[in-house]
Structure formats: C-alpha cells, structure tokens
Design goal:
23 strands; 818 residues; Rossmann fold; alpha/beta
C-alpha cells in the first residue's frame, strides 16, 4: 500500500500546492517565508489529500449502511499530526524531497507544529490511540470531542513552582489540519423550564424550553488509516453564540451587553476542565459536558436519519462509547430526544437507548467517581433531571425485586445519593444505561466487579467486561523511535506496525551480542537526543552513560511521584553520609502537570524542582545524581523522552491505577519497569517475565488489610533510619535556603496526614528494587537482553488488539476496506 500511495503521489502537483498556499493563504513568497510559513503551507497542501479521503470515506460508509462506533471523550491528546500523518500516508520520503527542493529540511519544519491542546493525560491519549487503531483497521468510527481554545494550560516554573498560562495551540494562523464543517453545526440549549402540553392526538407531553441557546460549530481533524485510504473524522465542537450582534446596544456604548451572549458561549469551550473548586466553575464544567454530548448525539441522529433509517433502528447501526463518566449526560439527552422530539414511548425509547451506549470505567478511586448536585442539574438541565429521576425510579423497582426490603442495596445502587446535598452519581447512571461496561486492565476489571460494582455484577451478569488498554505502535515506536524501527525492519520485516505480535520474533536475537550492541547504540543515541534537548532548553548537562530513570504522567498522589522523590533523597543522603555506598550514575527525569487547584500536587512539583537545584549543583556527588523536571509535558516531549528511558517508573499504590499506557509505551521502547502489582503492570509482568521487570510493594489485598488494621505511618518512620533521614531532609533549609518550612507540607501529609497512598509502607521495598536495578545495569549485556525482551514481548499491548476486543465483544463492527 505504501508503494501504491507513493506511485499515486504527484510531486509536481504537491509542490505547486505548497507554493499556492504559501502565497494565497499566508501572503508569503519563498524569499519572505519563515520556516513556520513553510510548515503551514506544506501541512495545508497535505490536508487537501486527507480531507478528500475523509469525504470519500464518509460517502462510502453512508452508501453501505455500515455499523459505526461513536467515541465520546472530553479529551483527545492527539499530539502533532504532520509527521505521523506523513507516515500513515506513506509519503514521508516523497514530501521530504519536495521540501528539500525549496531548501527546507522536513525534520526542522515538523518542529514548527505545536501540540493540539485537546487533552491532559492517559485518558485523552488512549482515545487518540484508539482512533488511530480504528482507522488503521478500517472499523467505521467517529470521534467526538471539544474544540478547546486553550486546552489545559501551558506549564512553566518560576522559583520551582508551577505557573499556568493559556495554551493558544492554534495560533493566529489556525491549525492547518482542521476543516470547518458548517453544514454539521448544531443548536444547544441551557436553563429554562419544562412545559406540559397536549399534542394533536390528545396525549399529554413534556418539552424543554431553554432560556439560553448556543451553537456548536463542527471542526473535523483527519484520523488517517495507516497506509490505507480510509480517513475518519475526529469531530470537535466549538461553542459560539447564535444570537445576532446587538448593533444598537454597541452604538449606545454598551459594549459588554452587545456581546454578552457571545462571551458567555465562548467560555464553554475556552479551556479543558475549567477549575471547579467554585460554583461558577462547576456550572461551566457541566455546561461543557452537556454541550459536548448534545452536539454529538444530534450529529449521530442526523447521520442515521439522513441515510434513510428509522429512529427505532438506531442501535442496529450505531454504538456510542462513553470514555469515562464525562459524557454520561448523553444518556438522558438521547432519551429526551427520543421521547420529546420523536414521540417514542418510554419503553421503546429505553430499549433503543439501553442498546446504544457502552461505558469504559477508568478509576477505582471513589473520590474520582463523578457526581453532580441535583440542584445544579435542575437549574441547568431541568428536563434531563426529570428523565434521570424516571430512570432511577424504574431501576430501583428492579433492585427491589432482586433484593426485597434491602434498603442498603437500593441506597448504594441508586443514581441519587442522599445527603445534605443530593447528588447524581454519573457512574451508576452509566452502568444502568449501558449494555456493556468495561475496565481497562485485567486486575482493574476484576476489582470493578469485586469492589466497585459487585451488586451491579450480580444484577447484570456478563455486562461488566475487560478490555486491556493498548497504544498505537505507529506513533509510539515507528514514528517516535525511527532508528529502532529501522533495526526491527531489518530483522523481522515491515509488517509489525499493524501486527505488533510479530515483535516476538525479536526474542531470537536477545542473546546475540552484535544485535545487543546495535540495540543499545540506538538507546544511547536516543538518550543523547534527550540530553541535547535538556541542555538547550534547561541548561542542564546530562551524562548519557547514566541510567535514565523516567516518571512521566499526570501529577497525582496515587501515582506517587513523592515516593520517587523520597528515594532520590535517600540516595542524596547515602552519597553524602555513607562512605561505603556506591551507585551507578542516575538521572531521574520527571514530567507532569498538576491540576491548578491541587495544592499538594503542586507542592510535590516544587519540592522536586528545589531538590534538583541542589543535587545538580552539588560537587560532592561527583555527578552520580541528577534530577530533571521537564516543563509543559505533552505528546511531542513524550516522543523524545520515552525512547531515551532505561527505567520506567510505574509506582502507584496497588489497586489505584486502572491500567496505565505509559508503562506500555516505555516497555515497547526497551525501558525496564519498576512497578507495583497494579493496573497493566500485572499483565506486562506476565508477558515479559519476572526476570525482566522489577516488582515491589504491597499487593492489592495487602493494602486493604493494612488499612483495615489501622495504618500508622509513624511506625515505618521510626523503624527505618534511611526513611527517617530522607523525610527529615524536607525540614530545614537544605533545599530552600531562608525558607525552612517550604517543603514541610509533603512530610506533614505523609506523617500527620496519614499517608493515604502508603508511600512509607512501600519505601523500603522500593529502595531494594532500585538496588536490584543498579546491580542489573552494571551487566550491560544482561541489561540489553532484558531491554530487547521487553520490546519483543509486549505485542499484546497494541491498541489494535484493544480495538479488536471492543469490536468482537462490545461494538460488533465489520471492517470496511477502501
């Protein structure tokens, strides 16, 4: 297919298209154009190809009445598109030659692209990998998200503290890959009241009359199938006010009033996850979620009806996958449309609705299970609250029939949580309203059934399933690690990017000394690339012979970056105070953003940065220890960090991480995991073997037992001298001269605060696991063998396999080849 695509590619026509965009779109000539102008013109010319294929794919799927999946997610962390799209189109070399004819280097041009700020962490990156795999395998799909103006935030550090600034990812010129689809725009209402009326048949009906209306502007980004001609849309909704501009008010000097509705509407898609530690933020976040769902449901129904299908057949041709609970309001929204606009009976509407939705659960943390106050929903979406009440009423009748008189079970399973402020439990609504519910790793799915939703599992046998997450090998090996990809091609052929299980053939070379040397030379070159970036952007010089130890993920207590920090402090203490202690040089690399309102997470970032300042400039350490916290973590940085990693930190408290996908990306690129028996670490261990992973810490049941016994962190502190010395370094002025209490909050949280994620309980075993890593790395041939086996034995963790699991067990799709 790649050769076919290259043969069809007209270099001269593409060259002309680039020149035309340079002149007519960006008003530049070759003499005046900057590298950014060349990047934009090149990408616009490429987008013409992908947009044509997108429309052709849509038309083919409509003509063939294919069953599709609609993937609803508040995040799609897609990363830069241009380089990855060139690989999927099979045009990387050809386009490189065309741009060279203009005197431009393609690699440099690709650096001009800013990551689209459409996501935060693993949830959004998973959605992006899944869309890539759907297109690669040609399973009909539409991704639905939001067209955020600023996304989360652009992170920087001042005095070691996280600073947040707007991330204007589109820039003034716009984003060259997106195309606006005005014919798909939707109207969405908010607030208002519910009216009761009698229709022409004499039946009493209800309808919602909103007080505020906004418009959903449709933007499509292309999801390009790997070396096939299928292109699926990632459809992003931007919120604008549909009301006309009030010229009279503006002329009278009321500038704000003239534009008020536009300002209010624009806020809905201004940023990803507006801070919700105040009432206005909560309202805006729920408005954001409903806007997303209302636009998406309306578009799904538009497509279905336009193809000539009846509304009752919706579930036969469409599945809607809810990526976590953020799109839950789509369930009552679809019910509202079926009841109030298509006049189905409740039973008929529920029969359709209950066969359309499937739900992916991403968390076992009770505090992370989303709830909304009943009063807020009543104010913002009054008709939806009526429908939620009716769903719950009918469901509780089913519960009562199963467990008569068991009010405790009814209270636990009810969509409505009683209390001083009644809350709507979105996860419960998802389980009730979906035909399938899945966890994202084998351990997680078992814990969902055992601990989170045991009664639901009894009530709906077979509904709760498992689909272990995966990552796309196109971006997370072929694109981000080209040297290793070339080496793999040479040994096992070029089909592995779509058949990742073929990597198992690399295991035959794990003991081959020549292959080991070539594999480790690739790793060394990748470490040098990262070291160069750190030197150029942060002014820190790294030793590429050191162990590169990486923890890159969202900053959260349960992910335990502060456990990693304590270990660094222990190494610092031992290097300065134990003359018999020796270690191989180690570089600890962090990258993470903390939610703006998450004080302790921001304290942990501050502490790591202050420790880094001291450690990196302490001549007594002899270069044995370096710490780097890379700011503004994003996909394009992950593409540099992951290929360079020797060690992958996956150290969440057992039972807290649903799956993880960073662990998969790092193992695929030859990093050895140090991790707890949590999430997908369990399955990675099964695949690579005990000798090629470093497992430590309490197991899930041991965590539960310790908490039931009454966990006392001071007992660990008082009985472990190394732990005590490490924690006490957070007191005083060692890392914060003139500010003796600046780092004390972390220590307070771990001791007086009860150490909720058992950092101190796992500390000693974590230190021991790191000592095993140090020993293993000194045997370079043995380490190379372990790294090669990690790459070769994780083929299971392709998102292609994840999608096939969804297709076979949940969505029931058939591939449509173009």
């Amino acid at each position: 297919m790649q050769k076919q695509t290259q043969a069809l590619f007209d270099k001269a026509a593409f060259q002309t298209s680039v020149e035309q965009h340079l002149l007519t779109t960006y008003a530049q000539t070759p003499a005046t154009a900057t590298p950014r102008h060349w990047y934009l013109a090149m990408s616009r010319a490429l987008a013409e190809i992908s947009t044509g294929n997108l429309i052709d794919t849509e038309q083919q799927l409509a003509a063939e009445s294919c069953r599709s999946v609609n993937y609803l997610s508040m995040e799609f962390l897609i990363g830069r598109l241009t380089g990855n799209n060139l690989i999927s189109l099979g045009l990387y070399e050809s386009v490189s030659e065309v741009m060279a004819s203009f005197g431009q280097n393609l690699t440099d041009l690709l650096e001009e692209e800013r990551d689209p700020a459409l996501g935060n962490g693993g949830l959004g990156r998973l959605a992006a990998c899944f869309m890539d795999s759907l297109a690669a395998q040609e399973f009909p799909a539409v991704g639905y998200g939001l067209h955020y103006e600023y996304g989360l935030f652009r992170q920087s550090f001042e005095g070691g503290r996280q600073m947040e600034a707007p991330d204007a990812w589109r820039s003034q010129e716009g984003y060259p890959w997106e195309v606006q689809r005005p014919e798909l725009n939707q109207k969405v209402g908010f607030f208002g009241q519910v009216e009761v009326y009698t229709d022409e048949t004499g039946a009493e009906r209800r309808r919602w009359v909103p007080d505020m209306q906004v418009e959903g502007i449709a933007w499509d980004l292309p999801v390009i199938g790997y070396q096939n001609h299928s292109v699926y849309p990632l459809r992003l909704w931007e919120c604008r006010a549909p009301a006309p501009f009030h010229l009279a008010m503006f002329n009278d000097g009321d500038y704000v009033g003239a534009q008020y509705s536009a300002i209010e509407a624009g806020n809905i898609t201004k940023v990803l996850y507006p801070n919700d530690n105040h009432e206005q933020g909560k309202t805006l976040r729920l408005m954001q979620q409903y806007f997303h769902c209302a636009c998406s449901v309306a578009d799904i129904l538009r497509r279905h009806l336009a193809a000539g299908h009846g509304i009752e057949s919706l579930a036969e041709l469409e599945a809607i996958q809810l990526n976590d609970t953020h799109p839950t309001i789509a369930i009552p929204e679809l019910m509202r449309v079926l009841l109030d606009e298509h006049y189905l009976s409740w039973d008929a509407a529920w029969s359709v609705c209950n066969k359309v939705f499937a739900y992916t659960n991403h968390t076992l943390l009770p505090e992370a299970l989303e709830t909304w106050s009943e009063s807020l929903i009543a104010h913002l979406l009054p008709r939806h609250l009526e429908i939620i009440f009716e769903i719950n009423h009918r469901f509780l009748e089913v519960v009562n029939a199963k467990w008569p008189g068991r009010d405790d079970i009814k209270q636990k399973l009810s969509v409505i949580e009683e209390g001083e402020q009644r809350m709507v439990r979105m996860a419960n609504l998802c389980v009730i309203g979906s035909y399938a519910v899945n966890g994202v790793a084998a351990l997680h799915s078992e814990l969902v059934k055992r601990d989170l939703f045991p009664e639901f599992d009894v009530l709906f046998p077979g509904k709760l399933q498992n689909v272990t997450n995966g990552v796309t090998p196109r971006r997370w090996l072929k694109f981000c690690n080209p040297a290793l990809s070339t080496l793999i091609d040479e040994k096992i052929g070029t089909e592995w990017p779509v058949h990742l299980a073929q990597l198992s053939a690399l295991a035959d070379f794990a003991d081959d000394a020549t292959f080991q040397q070539r594999y480790m030379a690739v790793k060394k070159a990748n470490k040098q690339r990262l070291a160069d970036w750190v030197s150029e952007n942060m002014g820190i010089v790294l030793d590429t012979d050191a162990i590169f130890d990486v923890q890159i993920k969202r900053l959260h207590e349960y992910k335990r970056q502060h456990l990693n920090l304590l270990h660094i402090l222990s190494l610092y203490h031992r290097l300065l105070n134990d003359p018999d202690f020796d270690m191989h040089p180690r570089v600890f690399i962090f990258a993470a953003k903390a939610a703006p309102g998450y004080a302790l997470a921001k304290d942990i970032i501050f502490a790591i940065n202050k420790v880094a300042e001291k450690v990196n400039n302490d001549p007594r350490l002899g270069g044995k220890l370096k710490v780097v916290f890379i700011p503004d973590y994003r996909v394009s940085l992950a593409e540099i960090i992951i290929p360079a990693a020797d060690v992958s930190e996956q150290i969440s408290t057992a039972g807290k991480e649903a799956s993880g996908t960073g662990n998969m990306k790092l193992a695929l690129n030859g990093a050895l995991t140090i991790g707890t028996m949590d999430g997908a670490n369990v399955e990675i261990r099964e695949e690579v073997g005990d000798e090629n992973i470093f497992i430590f810490g309490l197991l899930v049941d041991e965590v539960l037992e310790l908490k039931q016994q009454g966990y006392q962190p001071y007992r660990y502190y008082e009985s472990d001298s190394l732990l005590k010395a490490s924690l006490d370094l957070l007191l005083g002025e060692t890392f914060t001269p003139g500010e003796p209490e600046a780092l004390a909050e972390i220590r307070h949280n771990l001791l007086e605060g009860g150490d909720p994620y058992l950092v101190l309980a796992d500390f000693a075993d974590y230190v021991s696991a790191h000592e095993r890593i140090d020993d293993a790395y000194r045997d370079q041939a043995g380490w190379a063998r372990k790294a090669i086996l990690n790459t070769s034995l994780v083929g299971k963790f392709s998102s292609d396999r994840s999608i096939r699991d969804y297709v076979d067990n949940i969505w029931q799709l058939k591939a449509v080849k173009r």
